[in-house]
Amino acid sequence: MLLTMKFLVFLFILGPVKDCFAAINLETCRVALGMQTKEIKDEQLSSSSTYSEELLGARYARLGLNEGAGAWCPGNPISKDHNDEFLEINLLKLTVISLIAIQGRDNAESNAVEYATHFKLVYFRQSELPTDDWRRFEYRNYYNYTVMLGNNNPSQAISHSISPPIIAERVRVYPVNPVDVPLHVCMRVELYGCPYQ
């Protein structure tokens, strides 16, 4: 009886989620959400830290643009033991995210080679519970991996399908360093998707 009840609860929860994604046309839900065009405003961007707010702050984390000193760079090096630096993008409303592109910092003046070889996503939605403001989720792909491959050079962007897509109001991109040697990393980002209906 208990097993039957658990199965019915699982079907009840799965049903609306399955219907929700069935209603999303993933072929057309891949529009750039506005990092590059600045439809996502500077005040919607924040970070855990920055090496220099004036030159490397979150507002410079825009894919394809080379403003400020060229990207967002966290204030601390990233290592296996220090992977808690993040760039946060506040989309201001529920949005379907189906693709992400990231890029490093291509600074010809200093010949800097600063990029994230791996990264992960954490996202937030407003909670419907009165005791909790935001619900936090860590993105996992269909293979249950949380960490995605990043860049192998500072200038070329790499993109990843977010599959299954996520529905979020705020997104955090965490650079990840899988090796013991601490690295200074920098990122530029674009999110792709469509408004959640």
How is this structure best described in words?
With 197 residues, the protein is mainly β. It has one domain: Galactose-binding domain-like (Jelly Rolls, Sandwich), CATH 2.60.120. It is built from two helices and ten strands. Strands 1, 2, 3, 6, 7, 8, 9 and 10 form an eight-stranded antiparallel beta sheet that branches. A two-stranded antiparallel sheet has the order 4-5. A hairpin with a 4-residue loop joins strand 4 and strand 5. This is Discoidin domain-containing receptor 2-like. It holds the Pfam family F5_F8_type_C. It comes from Saccoglossus kowalevskii. Keywords: Signal.
Overall pLDDT level: 86
* Total beta-strand segments: 10
> Which sheet architecture does the biggest sheet show?
8 strands, antiparallel
Number of helical segments?
Answer: 2
- Termini gap: 37 Å
Poorly predicted parts:
1-21
Oligomer: single chain
Q: Which value, in Å, is the CA radius of gyration?
A: 18 Å
CATH class group: Mainly Beta
Give helix % range. Answer: 10-25%
Q: Write down the secondary-structure element order.
A: HEEHEEEEEEEE
Number of separate structural domains:
1
| CATH fold call | Jelly Rolls
Structural class: mainly beta
CATH homologous superfamily placement: Galactose-binding domain-like
Q: CATH architecture, please?
A: Sandwich
Set down the secondary structure blueprint:
Elements (H helix, E strand, L loop, with lengths): L1 H21 L8 E2 L12 E3 L5 H4 L30 E17 L1 E3 L4 E3 L3 E9 L7 E5 L8 E3 L8 E19 L11 E8 L2
Antiparallel strand pairs: 1-10, 2-3, 3-9, 3-10, 4-5, 6-7, 6-8, 6-9
